[in-house]
Amino acid sequence: MNDAQPRPSDSAGPDAPDGTQLPAGAESGGDAPVLTRQIPPPIEMVTLLGPRDELLRTMERQFPLVDTHVRGNEMTFTGPAGELEIIDTLVDELLTIVSTGQPLNRDAVERSISMLRGQTSERPADVLTMNIVSSRGRTIRPKTLNQKRYVDAIDEHTVVFGIGPAGTGKTYLAMAKAVAALQAKQVNRIILTRPAVEAGERLGFLPGTLNDKIDPYLRPLYDALHDMVSPETIPRLMASGTIEVAPLAYMRGRTLNDAFIILDEAQNTSSEQMKMFLTRLGFGSKMVVTGDITQVDLPGGTRSGLRVVRDILEGVEDVHFAELTSHDVVRHRLVSAIVDAYERDEVRAERRARARAASGDHRDHRGSRRASDRSPDRGADRDDHGGRRDATEAGA
Question: d(Cα 204, Cα 190) in Å, to the nearest integer?
């Protein structure tokens, strides 16, 4: 086997006791199949197993039915044939990643396993070694399959919507693609915008100039920009108009040619604002619209432009909608769990609301039926009886 290349996928091993074909290198020993992998000498085992065997422990947690043993450069796995097949491919993918000079970490191993279990057509090594832009020794690349598809869609379409929960890299990856396009001279400028909407709070009048007032709303875009462009060059690029960061209200009446335009927090646009923004598109430009439809901060009664735009633009050529989920969250691992917990709570709330609505309809139906059963005469009798009772009490 070539040291830097995975083994041919068309080679097959013997059959397991249950008749399942084993991966190449596996043996049917006793009741459980065994897979043995020799790691090429140029690859140091610590790069594959991690410091203090951290990555090995990660693999063991992900494959609880498999016994794993390491001796020197030899790894032996014993367990179900289906799990051994995934592990065999996983080792190939990790070796390919290591051969590119990219260090492995727990996140990369877990995401590789997730992609292999999902039986996707894309290889984990292709996803995790895709470079978008490099700056100051740091390379920005997608970390999940959906992120790679999102990045590919930006390359292939003029207008792309990136929709997903917080922490999925929607804006960050779009910003990286914008910087890469500027460096490659595919566009002449980058325009970053977002609506100036407060997140559930009313801050009142802010002091300072107009720029001082809108700066807090645009700060997340500046933060991402500083990760990708040298801080010393950002003021010069902004002064020359090569990079522009402005609130959405400043977009009206403009035609944006030869630009990479990003609208962030698009869930806080009205339908009219969304139409206004999309119609700013000029020749030679790209647009990326990002947002999370579960975090709308618009005043009550205002429809989010991001919620309705998909139905409006469905089927329009060169417009793409990329969906990201909690599985694509790349912040602290708790963020993914928090997103899932809130989604489950929303589902429960919707069920309770439907149940209350159904119960209310049932009660209204029964109440109206009881009212229709009442006759005027019976009502009069009650009134007459009540009147007599009152008169008797008064005489007493």
Answer: 31
- What are residue 24's phi and psi, to 5 degrees? -60, 140
Question: What DSSP designation does 12 have?
Answer: E
Range with the poorest average pLDDT among 217-226, 298-307, 319-328:
217-226
pLDDT band at 132 (very low <50, low <70, confident <90, very high): very high
Residue of 68, 65, 71 whose CA lies nearest to 55: 68
d(CA 262, CA 187): 13
Give the three-class secondary structure for 250: helix
- Residue that is written with structure tokens 């007032």 in the block: 213
CA distances from 138 to 35, 50, 135 (A): 37, 21, 5
pLDDT in tens, 20-50: 555 655 555 557 899 999 998 888 899 999 9
Q: Which residues contact 271 (CB under 8 A, 6 or more apart)?
A: 303, 304, 305, 308, 309
pLDDT at residue 25, as a whole number: 56
Q: How far is CA 367 from CA 85, 126, 357, 360, 373, in A?
A: 64, 65, 15, 10, 10
Tokens representing residue 49 in the block: 């197993």
Phi-psi region of 169 (alpha: psi -120 to 50; beta: other; left: phi over 0): left
In three-state form (DSSP H/G/I as H, E/B as E, the rest C), the secondary structure along 312-328 is HHCCCCCEEEEECCHHH
Tell me what pLDDT residue 354 has: 86
- Two tokens, residue 279: 């119609």
Q: Which pair of tokens denotes residue 127? A: 């996803």
Rounded distance, CA 197 to CA 207, Å? 17
Task: Assess whether pLDDT exceeds 50 at residue 351.
Answer: yes
Which of 77, 119, 73, 111 has the alpha carbon at shortest distance from 94? Answer: 111
> Is residue 101 pLDDT above 50, yes or no?
yes
Tell me which DSSP letter residue 125 carries.
Answer: H
Q: Give ∠ CA 298-218-294 in degrees, rounded to 5.
A: 35
Between 87-101, 290-304, 374-388, the lowest mean confidence (pLDDT) is in: 374-388
Coil/strand/helix, residue 261: strand
Residue 363 is predicted with a pLDDT of 56
